[in-house]
Each structure stands twice: as C-alpha cells, then as structure tokens.
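[audit] Reproducing an earlier prediction to check determinism. Same input, same settings, fresh worker. If the tokens differ from the archived copy the diff job will pick it up downstream; this log only records the rerun itself.
[audit] input (144 residues):
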Amino acid sequence: MLAPHPFGYDITPQSLSEKFAAFRQWEDRYRQLILLAKMLPALDPALKTADIELSGCENRVWLGYEKLPTGGIHFYGDSEGRIVKGLLAVLLTGVEGKTPQAILAQDPLALFDDLQLRDQLSSSRASGLAALSQAVLNIARQLS
C-alpha cells in the first residue's frame, strides 16, 4: 500500500466522534486538528506530483489514491498547512477503504458535521475542504 496511515483503521469515525464530543470550545477542536495533522505521515516527495496536487486550497495539498484488492479505495495525501493537513486526516478517516459506491452514497464531509468542524472554518479553508471533497468524489466516480 502506498503511503499508509492510521486514518480509517486505527482512527475511525466513531473514535473521532467520541474524542470530539468532549470538546466544547472551538480552540480545543482546533488543537485536536493539529494533533491529527501530526499523525498523518508526511508524503514521500516522489509522490507529490502535479497530477495529484489540488487547486482551490489555501495551502498546497496532494491527494492520491490506489484501488485495493477488496474493491475499496486507499487515499493518501499531505498538505503544507497544519490545519489543512488535520482536515485531510478527518476526511481520510471518513472515506478510507470504502468502495466507490459507498463514497458516492454519502457526503464525504458528513463526519465534519458530526464533529462540528465545518461551521468554524474560514471561507478559504471551507473552500479548500470543498475541493478535497470534490476530489474524493471525482476519484470515486472515475473508479465506479
């Protein structure tokens, strides 16, 4: 597997929901995003190619994928910004290993609503998150 990470496996949507449920302040959620960013391994520079670099994000962001033998999709990525990298980690938690059909059947950003993260994002970060979500959906459509 290219660029393995713990998101979707060791760190699940349920474990994130439980962790974020304890946070009442946006600052606590912000700190948790930074911690999640630190848990996402840096992408090998050889994988940071122009064809997986996303536009529409405040910071440089890369999102790659590979089809798994199970029919699911392994997503991997990186960002130069800590918060964006944390947002990417949350997105990976929600979509990692799912089939294209499962990804297309649910909003890839639903977990962000469960964690109460979307409402506090700046407009530029919200745009970047939308670009990430769109990239995941485009990949799922391409593979379905």
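[audit] rerun output stored. Observation attached for the diff report: Residues 9 and 51 are 26 Å apart (CA to CA).
[audit] end
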